[in-house]
């Protein structure tokens, strides 16, 4: 759903099923911003952030979570401590994530679709 929403907003989006795959996709085609959920199968978001920052220290990361057994705030706080540039609590408005992406990319206007 997030991929579809961002694509409709004019962003070029690459998708991965888990954190390990996300790192592999990024290796092939670096992105301006990485969005990661914190609760995922196989490699969770906390581990994913650590791996991204270990390999690509300058990568911009937005971590998102709707909670879990230790609570949303704890997950998002840990993500921030490990290097996430921004955090989002689910549910959130698409305008909120777009504003974060634009801020991290140093843009102030809406993206344009690529032909």
Give a brief outline of the structure:
This protein is of the alpha/beta class.
State the main characteristics.
alpha/beta; Rossmann fold; 43% helix; disordered C terminus; three-stranded parallel β-sheet; 115 residues
Task: Describe this structure as you would to a colleague.
It is built from five helices and three strands; from the N terminus they run ααβαβαβα. The chain has 115 residues and is an alpha/beta fold. Residues 109-115 have low confidence and may be disordered. Helix 2 (19-28) packs parallel to helix 3 (45-55). The protein has one domain: Response regulator (Rossmann fold, 3-Layer(aba) Sandwich), CATH 3.40.50. A three-stranded parallel sheet has the order 1-2-3, sandwiched between helices. The longest helix has 12 residues, at 94-105. Strand 1, helix 3 (45-55) and strand 2 form a beta-alpha-beta unit.
């Amino acid at each position: 759903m997030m991929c579809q929403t961002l694509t409709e907003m004019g962003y070029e989006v690459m998708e991965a099923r888990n954190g390990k795959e996300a790192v592999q996709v990024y290796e092939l085609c670096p992105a301006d911003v990485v969005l990661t959920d914190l609760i995922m199968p196989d490699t969770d978001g906390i581990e994913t952030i650590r791996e991204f920052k270990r390999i690509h220290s300058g990568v911009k990361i937005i971590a998102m979570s709707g909670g879990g057994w230790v609570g949303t705030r704890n997950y998002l706080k840990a993500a921030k401590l490990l290097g996430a540039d921004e955090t989002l609590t689910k549910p959130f408005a698409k305008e909120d994530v777009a504003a974060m992406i634009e801020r991290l990319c140093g843009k102030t206007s809406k993206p344009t679709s690529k032909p």
